[in-house]
């Protein structure tokens, strides 16, 4: 009796292992990891960038007023460092606009910032380097997601764009789940927080759309049409996800056209 | 230290089970020696079964030698203690739907010869019925935090639990409704069990778990 049970137990452990293995060989597992990492990388980048700006401003406080783009700012810190290095030749590569460049160089000359010790500057440069390498990783991930989505969920990617498509798959916890969802649920994916707030307190308005709100065509609509286009997009996405899951043909172009038609009709 | 149920020990505020695999801790819990037997600490904040015992469970249907079907195995935290209790002569079949938790759970199963993993949806008991001849289960334990938890429980009981067998169902009120008063939810969920079960005891898991109740019941003959 015990022998038989042990035999069955070993067999079932093997089977469960196999099932886990199969699941983790599927692309959506990696797509979900990558797209959720994207958000953490952005958060990490912003945090490091803020620290860097705050610190470097001791030396060159005017710079942040003129260069608002964090990536450009960090490059200047990393490659030029000391204010004395802010010359036309050094800055030309990094700040492309002439007008802005001129303002930066002027400000560098007249800066109220204090002198900075070499080893302190080195620490700040290291910070900017780390922040920039997170940006690099982000680019890499974006292209990875693009490729994976193209292979795994071409219809969803085609209609929603690879990143938004990946967000939807992640919010549904998998392509299979996304494919099984009614359009009304897809429409709200990513809006869970707002939905729960509404359920707890009915005076707070319920959300109309989640991640799909970020779709270019929805964004573009005037407020009164947003809901209709979002609903239509959710419906098409549900068709796209099903086509992807069941390995149907590529119909994303057709779906996209239909969606655009729908948006036009509203005007 | 006092043995309050077979293989379950209690000292001051803490619970312990007798370690089936001496020397190994499953999820970082404390091990200690008590008169030559090794005990594993059982944290009532991490395990609803421990919380139910703390809050006065009258009888523990999981005993040495029991055959337990455990739905919602997760990473195997509670199940490892169930495995301690049923000991070498008992067996625990753990079902979970998520591959993510199954990775860890399988490792627990490999260490403990009385646990069997099944990756399946507890809504569909027929997908795993072939692994045990019907009617052999002596205890059905369920903790899945799903909206239709009572239905899942009844379905599995129909398939596997022997008449006169025991059931333990952890009800998470918030899985059922975000708005209804918690006590109404417990009431209506428990009522659903009446067709198959006699409810023996209902235990609120406060303060260890918020808005949870453990229903202890026995299948009608
Ligand atoms: C609250 S956790 C259980 C914790 C566990 N009982 C413990 O104390 O160690 C709930 C588990 O139920 C699983 N679950 C949810 N729905 C399920 C279903 N339909 N079938 C099987 N397992 C399910 C989840 O994957 C999750 O691991």
Automatic annotation (TrEMBL), chain A:
Residues 152-267 form the Nop domain. GO terms for cellular component: box C/D methylation guide snoRNP complex. InterPro entries: Nop56/Nop58, Nop_C, Nop_dom, Nop_dom_sf, NOSIC. GO terms for molecular function: snoRNA binding. It comes from the Archaea. Coiled coil: none annotated. Belongs to the NOP5/NOP56 family. PANTHER family: NUCLEOLAR PROTEIN 5 NUCLEOLAR PROTEIN NOP5 NOP58, NUCLEOLAR PROTEIN 56. This is NOP58 family protein.
Automatic annotation (TrEMBL), chain B:
GO terms for biological process: box C/D sno(s)RNA 3'-end processing; tRNA processing. It comes from the Archaea. CDD domains: AdoMet_MTases. The lineage of its organism: Archaea, Candidatus Iainarchaeota, Candidatus Iainarchaeia, Candidatus Iainarchaeales, Candidatus Iainarchaeaceae. It is an enzyme of class 2 (transferase). The gene is flpA. S-adenosyl-L-methionine binds at residues 77-78, 96-97, 121-122, 143-146. Its EC number is 2.1.1.-. HAMAP family: RNA_methyltransf_FlpA. Involved in pre-rRNA and tRNA processing. Utilizes the methyl donor S-adenosyl-L-methionine to catalyze the site-specific 2'-hydroxyl methylation of ribose moieties in rRNA and tRNA. Site specificity is provided by a guide RNA that base pairs with the substrate. Methylation occurs at a characteristic distance from the sequence involved in base pairing with the guide RNA. Interacts with nop5. Component of box C/D small ribonucleoprotein (sRNP) particles that contain rpl7ae, FlpA and nop5, plus a guide RNA. SUPFAM superfamilies: S-adenosyl-L-methionine-dependent methyltransferases. Keywords: Methyltransferase, RNA-binding, rRNA processing, Transferase, tRNA processing. InterPro entries: Fibrillarin, SAM-dependent_MTases_sf. Gene3D superfamilies: Phosphorylase Kinase, domain 1 (3.30.200.20), Vaccinia Virus protein VP39 (3.40.50.150). It comes from Candidatus Iainarchaeum sp. This is Fibrillarin-like rRNA/tRNA 2'-O-methyltransferase. One of its GO terms (molecular function) is rRNA methyltransferase activity. Belongs to the methyltransferase superfamily. Fibrillarin family.
């Amino acid at each position: 009796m015990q022998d038989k049970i042990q035999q069955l137990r070993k067999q079932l452990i093997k089977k469960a292992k196999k099932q886990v293995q199969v699941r983790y060989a599927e692309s959506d597992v990696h797509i979900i990891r990558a797209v959720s990492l994207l958000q953490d990388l952005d958060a990490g980048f912003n945090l490091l960038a803020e620290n860097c700006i705050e610190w470097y401003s001791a030396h060159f406080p005017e710079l942040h007023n003129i260069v608002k783009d964090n990536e450009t700012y960090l490059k200047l810190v990393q490659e030029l460092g000391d204010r004395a290095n802010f010359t036309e030749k050094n800055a030309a590569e990094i700040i492309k606009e002439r007008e802005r460049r001129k303002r930066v160089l002027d400000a560098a000359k007249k800066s109220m910032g204090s002198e900075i010790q070499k080893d302190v500057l080195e620490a700040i440069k290291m910070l900017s380097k780390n922040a920039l390498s997170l940006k690099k990783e982000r680019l890499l991930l974006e292209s990875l997601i693009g490729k994976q989505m193209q292979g795994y969920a071409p219809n969803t990617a085609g209609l929603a764009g690879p990143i938004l498509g990946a967000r939807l798959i992640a919010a549904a916890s998998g392509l299979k789940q996304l494919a099984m969802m009614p359009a009304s649920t897809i429409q709200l994916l990513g809006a869970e927080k707002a939905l729960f707030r509404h359920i707890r307190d009915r005076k707070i308005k319920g959300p109309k759309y989640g991640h799909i709100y970020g779709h270019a065509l929805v964004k573009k609509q005037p407020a009164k049409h947003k809901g209709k286009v979002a609903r239509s997009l959710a419906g098409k996405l549900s068709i796209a996800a099903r086509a992807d899951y069941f390995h149907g043909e590529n119909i994303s172009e057709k779906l996209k056209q239909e969606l655009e038609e729908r948006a036009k009709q509203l005007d | 230290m006092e043995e309050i149920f077979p293989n379950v020990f209690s000292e001051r505020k803490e619970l312990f089970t007798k370690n089936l695999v001496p020397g190994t801790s499953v999820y970082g819990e404390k091990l200690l020696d008590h008169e030559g037997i090794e005990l594993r600490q059982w944290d009532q904040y991490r395990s609803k079964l421990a919380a139910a015992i703390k809050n006065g469970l009258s009888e523990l249907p999981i005993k040495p030698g029991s055959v337990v079907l455990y739905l919602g195995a997760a990473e195997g935290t509670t199940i490892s203690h169930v495995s301690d209790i049923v000991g070498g002569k008992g067996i625990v079949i753990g079902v979970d739907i998520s591959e993510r938790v199954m990775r860890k759970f399988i490792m627990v199963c490999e260490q403990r010869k009385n646990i069997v993993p099944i990756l399946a949806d507890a809504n569909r008991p027929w997908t795993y019925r072939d692994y045990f001849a019907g009617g052999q289960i002596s205890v059905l334990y369920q903790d899945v935090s799903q909206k239709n938890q009572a239905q899942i429980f009844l379905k599995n009981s129909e398939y596997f639990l022997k008449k006169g067998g025991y059931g333990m169902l952890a009800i998470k009120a918030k899985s059922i409704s975000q708005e209804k008063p918690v006590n109404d939810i417990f009431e209506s969920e428990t009522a659903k069990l009446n067709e198959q079960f006699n409810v023996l005891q209902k235990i609120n898991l406060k303060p260890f778990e918020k808005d949870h109740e453990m229903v202890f019941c026995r299948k009608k003959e």
